[in-house]
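Dear all,

This email documents one entry for the complex benchmark we are building for the journal club exercise. For each entry we list the sequence lines for every component of the assembly. Then comes the predicted three-dimensional structure of the complex as a token string, followed by one or two observations. Please use this as the template for your own entries, and keep the labels exactly as they appear.
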Amino acid sequence: MSAQPGPAAPPARNAQAAPATHRELFGAFTRLALQGFGGVLPVAQHELVERLGWVEREEFLRLLSIAQVLPGPNVVNLALMIGDRFFGWRGALTALLGMLLAPSVVVLTLAVAAMQLRELPWVAGALRGMAVVAAGLVASTAIRLASALRGNVLGTPLNALLGALTLLAVGVLHWPLVGVALGLGCVAVAAAWRRLGAAAR
Amino acid sequence: MTPWLLGTHALTAADWLQLFGHFLMLSLLAIGGAMTTAADMQRYVVGERGWLGDTGFGDAIALAQAAPGPNVLFVAVLGFDIAGLLGALVTMLGTLLPSSVLTLHATRWGESRRDSRAVRAFTSGMAPLTLGLLLATAWLLYAPAAAQPGSWALVGVTLVLMLRTRLGPLVPIAIGAVAGALGWVG
């Protein structure tokens, strides 16, 4: 507990604070994960940048943009990168486990409870309602991320076409993702490659 | 006790390997997050293997979204519903192992090449597919309740709250739970 800065002592602006021990790193990621209802990213930014001062704001944004293009959950990739920065791969593992262990216990406990209560009509209804909201949450994430396509070299019409084709193939026709990602993905990456070459000239 | 540890489906050794293998493969395709591969998980777990029903699949995602922690934990819930605690471990390990190893290596290796044509072609080419996959996931979550007018309203309210206010996802989740409990959805 003594390692934690009190609320009266905000982290200094430019001094790059860092976790002193694995335990501190683990604790920080557990704390931020347990606050993240519905999504961890906003809490992660607040805790790591504003409160603890372990990562500068610009750096956080840069790490996130890399985390987003790599496969895997964005916040998990972010935890790996930040943990790696402090204690190498062991730090990456510490941050990852800190982020996942306690929330896993919570969510699996809830799953057990839900399994036994699912017979109750109001519980089944509540879960159905939450699933519909989850659909809206995922859609809102997609809409928010769509603004990041503005500077995309493919241009709006091609982006919209590729997005719509992916939605059709995977969501409506239920084609396996591997084939869609490889087939459509190759076309999209090749098109981007060509346009980047043309733009450079 | 065994349903908690191993689930109720009595998976064979081959089933376990295939389950693990499928999630290992999806891990490397999960650009934009594990949620982008949920549509294919649904196809495999519900359609191909029949381990879960449509609503069971949606429940797992709703639960993980409502609970604290990264949304990727829906994978743990899926694994748990299919095959108990061991199932949760297998699906989570499969989902995180390849992408984590790749992330660590790629960030160390690729920092200097971020502006190269190949890396930029890859990231800009895959971006619209990522959005399409997210929308496909949204559609699959929505489809079981699509016929209900209450569902339309709920999705609309969620979109407005998330895109037009600073409220967190917990608010629409709570609204959805109450509306569902009152029998307005499905």
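Observations: Confidence is low (pLDDT under 50) at residues 1-14 of chain A. Residues 158 and 164 of chain A are 10 Å apart (CA to CA).
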